[in-house]
Design brief:
This protein has about 325 residues and is an alpha/beta fold. About 35% of the residues lie in helices and about 15% in strands. The chain has two domains: about 20-250, Rossmann fold; about 270-334, Alpha-Beta Plaits (2-Layer Sandwich), CATH 3.30.70. α2 (about 30-45) links the parallel β1 (about 20-25) and β2 (about 50-55). Pfam families: Glyco_transf_N.
Length: about 325
């Protein structure tokens, strides 16, 4: 009869310690708002001494780390950035004259994210052999990339929604063929989502959303119940039968960040001017970093600001530089 070899007590302890580990794998969509939110969520998870593996294309990992505010991911322990090399893709400039204002210039980057599927699958398989539990938190538009998780017995996958619970509720409502009208969930005069997205992006969304139900333990939102309890309740009722849980863990974006020049202790003159304004008299309005206004819209907004008779700072992207990021925000002094 063959003799079975048992590990020593030291080996057993090492084995149990190894198997008891829980790891988290973050898979963001390659757009700044999505990259940043999952990076901020990573920071929260790291505070609980849980290792995080952040997976994206090399260029997008670099972008996420360079643009993050409030902390330095490079100095943080237990966060592992997996730089995936993907084929080059075209990056067209934004088109301010497009009829649909969705930032279609980002679509090539979204499409290129499908190249992450094989590397992510290999990573999940490797981690599943080392950890007792592998938790995958993936952007709602990256479901196809993490399909390998459904074949691993010790893996759980959670969908991350970077938009508000209201936006997700509205999308679900219209997806079912319902008409937006005043009811206990949606207020009156809410505009439809029709015409907000390009056909190509709609196809991209449908490709990923069709795979959510196959392996989804729960949903995480960058929001809080104090603000969006009605819509969180709405989404929970929608998935009661499936047993899917919903967590409002945000907001993840830091709200107090000192903005100063690295080369000088002196603040930008705009910030110095803002510091002189009375408390609770400043309103910050952002149209998003991917919104592109045409000349007519910019002119109308300028007229409105002038007619408001209020002091304001308005930041616009320099179209001549062809910068994809469209800083279009208004700070109004009441």
């Amino acid at each position: 009869m063959a003799t079975q070899r048992y590990p020593t007590s030291h080996g057993i302890n090492d084995h149990l310690k190894k198997q008891a580990q829980v790891v988290v794998v973050m898979v963001p969509l390659p757009a700044q708002g999505h990259l940043n939110q999952l990076l901020q969520l990573s920071r929260l998870i790291l505070s609980h001494k849980i290792p995080v593996h952040y997976v994206a294309a090399t260029t997008h990992n670099r972008q996420a780390k360079q643009r993050v505010h409030g902390w330095d991911p490079n100095a943080a322990a237990n966060i592992h950035f997996h730089d995936i090399e993907i084929p080059p893709f075209h990056c067209p400039p934004p088109n301010p004259e497009a009829k649909i204002k969705f930032p279609s210039q980002l679509q090539p980057a979204f499409n290129a994210s499908f190249h992450l599927t094989k590397p992510v699958s290999m990573l999940l398989r490797a981690l599943s052999c080392k950890a007792r539990k592998v938790i995958v938190i993936y952007d709602s538009l990256m479901a196809s990339v993490i399909e390998e998780a459904r074949f691993l017995s010790n893996a759980e996958a959670y969908t991350f929604h970077s938009v508000s619970a209201f936006a997700v509720s509205l999308y679900q409502w219209e997806l079912e063929g319902n008409v937006i009208e005043e009811n206990e969930v949606f207020p009156r005069d809410i505009p439809s989502l029709e015409g907000c997205f390009t056909d190509e992006f709609t196809g991209f969304v449908n490709c990923h959303y069709s795979k959510h139900g196959k392996f989804n333990t729960g949903c995480v939102y960058n929001t809080c119940r104090v603000v969006e309890s009605a819509y969180m309740d709405f989404l929970e009722k929608k998935t009661t039968k499936e047993g899917i849980k919903h967590w409002a863990l945000g907001p993840f974006n830091p709200v107090t960040v000192a903005v100063r020049s690295k080369s000088s202790k002196k603040q930008h003159f705009c910030l110095e001017w803002l510091d002189k304004q009375a408390k609770n008299t400043v309103i910050y309005v952002s149209f998003g970093t991917t919104t592109t206004f045409d000349d007519g819209q910019i002119k109308e907004l300028a007229v409105g600001l002038r007619e408001s008779k209020k002091k304001f700072i308005w930041v616009l992207r320099d179209a001549d530089k062809g910068d994809v990021v469209n800083w279009n925000l208004v700070i109004i002094i009441m």
